[in-house]
Specification:
Elements (H helix, E strand, L loop, with lengths): L2 H8 L5 E5 H4 E5 L5 H6 L1 E7 L8 E5 L4 E9 L8 E10 L3 E6 L7 H11 L15 H4 L3 E5 L4 H48 L10
Parallel strand pairs: 3-6
Antiparallel strand pairs: 1-8, 2-7, 3-4, 5-6, 5-7
Length: 208
């Protein structure tokens, strides 16, 4: 079962309304920030861009454009459609966008993050060799809202799904760390025996 199918399975039994994201959220884009700008305005607040390494952070500046809880997504390039759950004070560049609930429906942003993680890349447009997922496309993505007329119950269901997926994410991270440690240990063991064999002293030639 795919990730989206698993999410739908978790929603099984709940009264679900499917609504375009643009009806329940506010979408905003970032701004152009050059490497020189980042250097000249170095500070404490992270700036996120289109990369996925280092959680998308490319530097820190002395000001911030956003403060609170958001979902961000990459709009352009090879990582278009990649989403992150953001909290705190931060800024984003022009190849990113942020999403925040507009209050029209009960919506947990962590729940939204998990849903978009399963489906956003399906909406990426790859024409002309430059993958894109612009705001107008993101606004059309269907979002499941369980029990939309019962806000408390809706948020409780979303919260329970987030709890389950968080636990799976933590377990996966632990297993990945254990596997990485095992592979590193095996590599060192292999290198030790390889070097031992390569440096084994040769038998002396018999005297003529």
């Amino acid at each position: 079962m795919g990730d989206a199918g698993f999410m739908e399975k978790l929603l099984d039994g709940a009264d679900v309304a499917w609504v375009p994201l643009g009806e329940v959220a506010i979408l905003r884009r970032g701004r152009v920030m050059s490497k020189g700008y980042l250097v000249e305005n170095a500070g404490d607040y992270p700036v996120y861009s289109s990369q996925t390494a280092n959680n998308g952070m490319i530097g820190k500046i002395e000001t911030f454009d956003f403060d609170g809880e958001f979902v961000s997504w990459t709009t352009d390039g090879a990582n278009a459609g990649t989403v992150f759950h953001r909290t705190g004070k931060f800024s984003i560049t022009n190849v990113c966008g942020v999403i925040k609930s507009n209050g029209a429906k009960p919506l947990s942003l962590k729940f939204l993050f998990y849903w978009l993680s399963t489906t956003a890349k399906k909406h990426v447009y790859s024409g002309m060799g430059n993958p894109k997922l612009m705001s107008n496309q993101v606004a059309k993505i269907p979002i499941p809202i369980p029990c939309p007329e019962e806000p408390e119950r809706s948020l409780a269901i979303q919260g329970e799904i987030v709890r389950i997926l968080d636990s799976f994410t933590e377990l996966t991270a632990e297993l990945t760390a254990e596997l990485t440690a095992e592979l590193t240990a095996r590599k060192k063991q292999y290198e030790y025996y390889r070097d031992l064999l390569l440096n084994f002293p040769k038998a002396e030639e018999p005297a003529a």
